[in-house]
Amino acid sequence: MILYPAIDILEGRAVRLLHGKRSEVTDYGDPVDCAKRWVDMGATILHIVDLSGAFGEKSTFHRSLERIAALGVPVQSGGGLRSMEAIRHRFRMGADRVVLGTVCVEQPEVLKEAAETFGGKIVAGIDAKDGKLAVRGWTEIAEKDAFDFGCEARALGVTDAVFTDIGRDGALTGVNVEDTVKMGETGLNIIASGGVSSISDLRALAEKGVYGAILGRSIYTGAIDLAEALKEFSWYERE
Description:
The protein has 11 helices and 12 strands. It is α/β, with parallel strands linked by helices. Helix 9 links the parallel strand 11 and strand 12 (212-215). The two termini are 17 Å apart.
């Protein structure tokens, strides 16, 4: 599996949210310092999210992104991307891969154009609650079925997707292996997100052939030793 240490940035700070709620925030300091820590432990790719942008707030995210990208490790980045220009700008600021969520539901033509333009650099963000897509920083639940959306994204040529069970995100309650594996039936390479709390969770995903896993609160609290987890699981090969 590929392991993706996560850095969620809100108002210029590295934070973790509980169940994605803006009011349930834990501050972990300077995001660039966090990135350096994960890279020093052996991280070969980072997952960086603009939470301010996802919530529709004014964002200074790109200042942090540029500095993190300068560390020399590939960056996968999402949050607040609602147009082709925003996507292009995210790439210009140093992202190697871009995760698209809300825009896929509200403007599916943007996902289509992005997939045609950037190919494997576009990752579908499938954030789900009770089988339905969550959008706009998880503040709204769409009528769109998450699995159906995954199938549609794959049909457009998207190969990878981040699947998040938002009921478990930031809670250290264990990953939703069953739904993660089910989402893989879309034909997408699934990167599990939300609830990963232990090496046992990672092993359960790996045993099912899951492509990757995003690590958030678990590495910030020390519940998972990132260096040890990387030795056991991580690989990264990308043109």
